[in-house]
Amino acid sequence: MSEPKQEQCNSQCVKENVFIYAAKYGGFNEVCISKTIEEDFYTVSVLIKQMNEWFTLSTRRDSHKPREFKHVDVAISKIRKMIGATKFIITYQHPL
User: What HEC string does the chain produce?
Assistant: First the structure.
């Protein structure tokens, strides 16, 4: 698997139903769980094959904010159940 690129950081936040639909029917190449140094949470993004675009799972209340997971194992478990992913890329992004 390739390393996540800058596009992943600027990905589009989408609600859970869109996230699941895009991953299942558009196919996904990569699942990335990321955390930046200044944030105390993880976010989940998928690279959709057919669109070659990153989608980030949004919160339930605000579709423009990424869903926050306090622990990486919780994020992995949730995404595994949602879309059946078995491989994950975990990144810690340092601000420039």
Answer: CCCCCHHHHCCEEECHHHHHHHHHHHCEEEEEEEEECCCCCEEEEEEECCCCEEEEEECCCCCCCECCECCHHHHHHHHHHHHCCCCCEEEEECCC
> To which residue do tokens 């306090």 refer?
70
Total residues found in the chain within this entry: 96
Token pair listed for 50: 């057919």
Where the chain has pLDDT below 50, the residues are 1-7
Specify whether the CB–CB gap between 35 and 48 falls below 8 A.
Answer: no
Strand pairing report for 28-36 and 43-48: antiparallel
Please give the model's pTM, rounded to 2 decimal places.
0.83
